[in-house]
Amino acid sequence: MQKEFPKDFLWGASTSAYQVEGAAAIDGKGVSQQDVINQERHEKFGFADASVASDHYHKYKEDIALFKEMGFTSYRFSIAWSRIFPNGDGEVNQEGVQFYRDLINELKANDIEPIPTLYHYDLPWPLVEKYGGWLSREVVDDFAVFAKYIINEFKDDVKYWITINEQSIIVQYWTQKCYILPEYQDNNQLRYQINHHMNLAQAIAVKYVHEVGGLAGPALGYSPIYARTCKPEDQIAALNANDLRNSYYLDVYFKGYYNVAALTYLKQNDLAPEMAADDEKLFAENLSDFFAINYYDSNCAHACPEGAERRWSGYNLTGKKGDMSGFETHPGFYQMCSNPELKTTDWDWAIDPIGLEYVYRDLYTRYKIPFMITENGLGAYDELTPDGKIHDDYRIDYLREHIKATKRAMDLGVEVIGYMPWSALDLLSTSNGYKKRYGLIYVDRTDDDEKECARIKKDSFYWYKNVIASQGTEL
Ligand code: BG6
Predict the structure, then answer these.
(1) Which one from 166, 328, 357, 450 is the annotated catalytic residue?
(2) Model pLDDT for residues 160-175, shown as the tens digit of each residue
(3) Angstrom distance (rounded) from CA 448 to CA 126
(4) Going by CA atoms, what residue is nearest to atom 16 of ligand 1?
(5) What is the DSSP-derived secondary structure letter of residue 311?
(6) What is the pLDDT of residue 3?
(7) Per the omega criterion (within 30 degrees of 0), is the bond before 298 cis?
């Protein structure tokens, strides 16, 4: 039998605003770039748009009652900037503030720690129209006003703040996570420029959180990168990939400067961001306090000859194994590839619980700060059977092995304070609509038909409830 997790361990799960809330044009909310992006994806690929999503805006009390039934002691959610500042700047929409106050009060009334994310992909659309959104450094000032307002408003109820979600993934999939006007889409230096603006915004948010006595961390979309073979040139390629895809972000948040090899590579290839003289000083003065890790898979890389074609990360839109549109390739530096040793999800994400153990061990050795898992989950086709059940044993297997990996790392001294898998309930996937599901709670809707969004407990709901009740000893 597994030893108990600590008594104060935060057990819960996660969501983000535009992926669950719906009510996209209700109670004063402004349009966000995700409303626009998902409308376009609906027209192009048939995925659901974000107008109703999982209707959490209207059903949050029912959802929190289900979280309580599972035994949650934490819930990670995000705050939609366009619900608070419908224009991105200017007047505050008090109805939007009231929604999050009610949500937080309801969580606290149920002894669930609220863990808000300040930014999860949903920039107010008027800022895209005004200056191109994250492309412009002007966005940093507008974000600072929003962040300061929210942090002050909820400072008495929130201890842990997640600043910005997955900058590394935003760089890889920039047109999916940000609205990029077509005329800029061929300029790949802008991927890193956007990220630089986000680094400034995130450092300012950390500063405000520290001013009110809270703790802050960015949510890292983190996949460790293995070398495909033990050939020295593949090992160096994996190191290069780790520097550019992982340490490039970590070093800014936790050391206060850009990873040297990665930045040098970007400069040599005209991809480096423009920065002002004091920018790294701002980073260094506002270091983050904990790792918020979003872990789904591990990645693999091999050596890539000079002269190969540069490519950016591909994706699988169909949910048919092997339909990946390509792998990131940086000539002379590395090429990403699939890992022949690992099984994958239907969307070609490698399933690798040991990879999570590797992340804990590697990052704790290098940075020695605590972790919380803010996403971890299996995107899968779920079937609602005629008896009204969802037998998601594949999800249970996935989560069980990742919790075991967490415990193994903790048994070797790594500090982990919480586990919040993705996702508390089914939601609008960022890449694949409602066919690909992650929730512990099923939401009865499809891409084409919103129905009533009824909540149904999956088998994983009952399993996780028992995991929490047994303090992680019954897996
Ligand atoms: C993370 C994001 O990248 O992965 C979530 O923070 C997202 O917003 C999750 O939903 C799973 O990705 P996808 O594309 O399957 O929804």
Answers:
(1) 166
(2) 999 999 999 999 999 9
(3) 28
(4) 429
(5) B
(6) 79
(7) no
Residue from 299, 349, 375 whose mutation best tests the ligand 1 pocket (most atoms within 8 A of CB): 375
Position 2 confidence tier, pLDDT thresholds 50, 70, 90: low
Name the one residue in this structure whose structure tokens are 């419908």: 86
Phi-psi region of 120 (alpha: psi -120 to 50; beta: other; left: phi over 0): beta
Mean pLDDT of the 328-334 span: 97
Identify whether the C-beta of residue 12 lies closer than 8 Å to the C-beta of residue 67: yes
- The alpha carbon of 474 and the centre of ligand 1 are apart by a number of angstroms equal to 28
Fold for the domain defined by 10-223+365-469: TIM Barrel (3.20.20)
Atom of ligand 1 nearest to the CA of 165: 6
Q: Is the CB of 221 under 6 A from ligand 1?
A: yes
Query: What CA dihedral angle connects 269, 194, 170 and 428, to 10 degrees?
Result: -150
The residue among 122, 397, 366, 351 whose CA lies nearest residue 242 is 366
**Tell me: the pLDDT tens digits for 66-96?**
999 999 999 999 999 999 999 999 999 999 9
Work out whether strand 416-419 and strand 10-14 pair parallel, antiparallel, or are unpaired. Answer: parallel
CB distance 379 to ligand 1 below 6 Å: yes
- Is 117 a pocket residue for ligand 1 (Cβ < 6 Å)? no
Tokens of 212: 């009110």
Residue 429 to residue 380: CA distance in whole angstroms: 11
Element containing residue 74 per DSSP (H, E): strand 74-78
Q: From CA 365, how far away is CA 412, in angstroms rounded?
A: 11
Q: How many CA atoms lie within 13 A of 177 on its CB side?
A: 22
d(CA 379, CA 346): 8
Nearest ligand 1 atom to alpha carbon 429: 16
User: Is the pLDDT at 408 greater than 50, yes or no?
Assistant: yes
Mean pLDDT (whole number) for 101-128:
98
**Cα 329 to Cα 304: distance, rounded to the nearest angstrom:** 7
Q: Which of 348, 430, 435, 447 to mutate to test the pocket of ligand 1 (most atoms within 8 A of CB)?
A: 430
Residue 122 Cβ < 6 Å to ligand 1: no
CB 75 within 8 A of CB 107: yes
**Whole-model pTM?**
0.97
Rounded to whole angstroms, the Cα distance separating 444 from 454 reads: 5
Q: What are 153's two structure tokens?
A: 């408003």
Cβ neighbourhood burial of 10 (10 Å; 0-12, 13-18, 19+)? buried
Can 166 be counted among the known catalytic residues? yes
What distance separates the 2 farthest-apart alpha carbons in the chain? 63
Over residues 120-143, the pLDDT tens digits come to 999 999 999 999 999 999 999 999
- Atom of ligand 1 minimally distant from the CA of 296: 4
Round to whole Å and give the CA distance between 204 and 272.
22
